């Protein structure tokens, strides 16, 4: 099981991962379909002071639900975060789940 399929805790995250897969396959039409499905699901927006928020949003992670289940490997690949940045994001998400 890849790191990107081991942490699917919401329908919104499922749609995000399908969106990434479509992007990897170069299918922009399908990317748009999955983005629409992802954004149609209500979610908790990332706070304005969330660590690396701009990078995360640019990569497609705009909510807590999008990030819940992500690991550092995924964040480094998908959001172009460094190791420490990814670890900071993981810790911030974990703090919200307490």
Compact overview of the structure:
With 98 residues, this protein is mostly helical. Helices cover 60% and strands 0% of the residues.
Describe the model.
This protein has 98 residues and is mainly alpha-helical. It has one domain. It is built from six helices and no strands. It has helices at residues 11-24, 28-40, 53-59, 64-67, 72-78, 83-96. α1 (11-24) runs antiparallel to α2 (28-40) and α5 packs across α6 (83-96). The longest helix is centred in the N-terminal third of the chain and has 14 residues, at 11-24. The radius of gyration is 13 Å and the shape is globular. It starts with 10 loop residues before the first helix and ends with a helix. Mean pLDDT is 92; it is low at 1-5.
Secondary structure topology:
Blueprint: H1 11-24, H2 28-40, H3 53-59, H4 64-67, H5 72-78, H6 83-96
Helix pairs in contact: 1-2, 5-6
Can you give keywords for this protein?
globular; 6 helices; 0% strand; disordered N terminus; single chain; 98 residues; mainly alpha
């Amino acid at each position: 099981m890849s790191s990107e399929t081991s942490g699917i805790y919401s329908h919104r995250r499922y749609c995000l991962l399908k969106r990434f897969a479509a992007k990897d396959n170069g299918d922009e039409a399908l990317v748009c379909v999955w983005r629409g499905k992802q954004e149609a699901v209500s979610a908790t927006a990332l706070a304005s002071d969330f660590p690396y928020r701009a990078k995360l949003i640019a990569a497609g992670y705009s909510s807590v639900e999008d990030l819940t289940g992500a690991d550092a490997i995924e964040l480094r690949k998908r959001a172009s975060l460094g190791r420490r940045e990814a670890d900071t994001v993981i810790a911030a998400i974990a703090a919200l789940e307490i």
